[in-house]
Amino acid sequence: MKRIILVLLALLLALSPCALCEEDDGGEGAINLIEEQDSFANAGSLSLSEPFTPDDLEKTILIGDDRVTVKKTKQYPYSAIANITGKFSCGCPTQSTGFMVTRNTLLTAAHCLVCQKHNKWAKKLTFYFGYKSNKNYLYRYKSHWEAYVGTLFPNGYTSENDWAYVVFDKDVGDKTGWFGMRNLSDSELESGTFTVAGYRDKKLKYDVGGLRVMDSDRMWVDMDVLPGNSGSPIYDSDNYAVGIWTTYYDNANSGFRINSKMLDKLRAEGLL
């Protein structure tokens, strides 16, 4: 009789709703503070990486418009943009954006990985590419990751050093494609037209506009972006990223420039 009861209990557990539903706790990772590197890359139209589109992905041609919802999220370059979901070790949820820049490396904002309210790091994250829903996407990464952040925000939020990169254990970019990167001069940034594209409320939207330089690290973004879009790529018509959108203000938005400091670090780590 005891054996029959145990068998029935086991069957009930196996058929319970929690056992039948797909759990998506995300992959665990580690956060590291980026060490400063001596700069050896000069400002200007220097490209240390090239965009990459997998053979089986369609490309899309962008036509400027305000806050356009992307319907074909599985087309490149949108396929290389990640909808990042998860939680910090304090229990606070996080939803943000990131984008691939090499086979296994993703760029995002540092505050997407560090809870400024509690000064706690991201614990478990899931990276969705070509996202439409939790069951409809091009690629999902939920394995181990290693992140490096420009700051841990010891005194609360600041836009200084608000950038980060995440290294995956798998060559995610072979499936999603990736953006190239350009270290543009002040005049090149301010004379160009760029796109920012990111996820918010599970939808990918983009806008097109100009940039104004703040300093060697940061720039004002004359495009419509909202909280949740943090970590979005700012890129040109050739799919070269020139910055990361980081900060939302009531009357302005700002981003972190892809500059020699960032490229030097990626190159020193053998990621470029």
What descriptive keywords fit this protein?
six-stranded antiparallel beta barrel; Thrombin, subunit H; seven-stranded mixed barrel; mainly beta; 272 residues
What does this protein structure show overall?
The chain is mainly beta and 272 residues long. It has a single domain (27-52, 62-268), classed as Thrombin, subunit H. It has helices at 2-14, 17-20, 173-176, 186-191, 260-268, and strands at residues 27-33, 46-49, 68-69, 81-88, 93-100, 105-108, 114-115, 120-129, 139-141, 145-149, 164-168, 180-183, 194-200, 203-213, 218-222, 233-235, 240-248, 253-257. Strands 1-8-4-5-6-11-10 form a seven-stranded mixed barrel. A six-stranded antiparallel β-barrel has the order 13-14-15-18-17-16. Strand 13 and strand 14 (203-213) form a beta hairpin. The longest helix has 13 residues, at 2-14. The protein is globular. Residues 2-23, 37-47 and 59-65 have low confidence and may be disordered.
- Beta-strand residue fraction: 35-45%
Shape: globular
How many β-strand runs? 18
Strand order of the largest sheet: 1-8-4-5-6-11-10
N-C termini distance: 65 Å
Low-pLDDT residue intervals, each spanning 5 or more residues: 2-23, 37-47, 59-65
Helix-strand layout with pairing:
Elements: H1 2-14, H2 17-20, E1 27-33, E2 46-49, E3 68-69, E4 81-88, E5 93-100, E6 105-108, E7 114-115, E8 120-129, E9 139-141, E10 145-149, E11 164-168, H3 173-176, E12 180-183, H4 186-191, E13 194-200, E14 203-213, E15 218-222, E16 233-235, E17 240-248, E18 253-257, H5 260-268
Parallel strand pairs: 1-10, 12-17
Antiparallel strand pairs: 1-8, 2-12, 3-14, 4-5, 4-8, 5-6, 6-11, 7-8, 8-9, 10-11, 13-14, 13-16, 14-15, 15-18, 16-17, 17-18
